[in-house]
Amino acid sequence: MEKPGAMTIPALPFALDAYLARIALKEAPAADADGLATLQRAHRLAIPFENLDIALGRGIGIDPVSVFAKLVSAKRGGYCFEHGQLFLDALEALGFAARPLLARVWLGRPEAVPPLTHTLALVTIDGAEWIADAGFGGSYAPPMPLADGEEAESPDGARFRLARDPEFGWMLSRNGHGGMTDGRSPGEGWQDQYSFTLAPVFPADLALGNFWVSEAPESRFVQNRIVSVPLPHGFATLNGRAYRRHSKDQSTEAEIGDPRVYRMRLSMMFGIDLTAEEVAALGLFGGG
């Protein structure tokens, strides 16, 4: 219920055709399980995960207008709060019933309980609940039915498993090649990715998580310049000047020492076009 005197700002219609063109889908997928998988996969292959605007001193807006302008119109990437909003808007436009969830990221084995710094979607299809994640930069997990013990295989061959957690609600775990991650995975075997509950999430909750991620000195997104994208059968990452690409049985690792090479790699592998001045401002090569 609105407070007396509150102003209602009408939402702009979602430009579905422009979004579908951005993720290279020729037609809108159906609002079913196959359509959800198709949409999430196309979204992640086309729109990279990245946090470069934090280092560039730009605020991270997570409202529908801001994320569409950046991730679709400007053909940039973003991190989970940006991807999550865009994906939810697309799901709604396609007729899905979905809402956001908040998660604690355990990948990398933090020493203390991590904060709620990740968001994913809970999607209801024919009365059944699914989780879908278009914005996790650490690895690629396909949409999964929300069921204890449920497992699924991603296109890179990794296995994902959902399990109830007595303390944190639900835990998503992964078992797969470490090269198909952003480098935080110490090796193969089942490893916790993130935990979440089904508690309602409000815009203020997302705004708080987004603020912590983009402003807190201890946030890895404040400390590092991170880019990643799933490949059709692999994964590519750029963490600072360290470049890693793994696809099937081929791996490439390199330390980039020239800002011109960094800029070229951003464009050719991740589809992110920054000016030479913006690359210098990232502070990776003695500039900024």
TrEMBL record:
It holds the Pfam family Acetyltransf_2. It comes from the Bacteria. InterPro entries: Arylamine_N-AcTrfase, Papain-like_cys_pep_sf. PANTHER family: ARYLAMINE N-ACETYLTRANSFERASE 4-RELATED, N-HYDROXYARYLAMINE O-ACETYLTRANSFERASE. Belongs to the arylamine N-acetyltransferase family. This is Arylamine N-acetyltransferase.
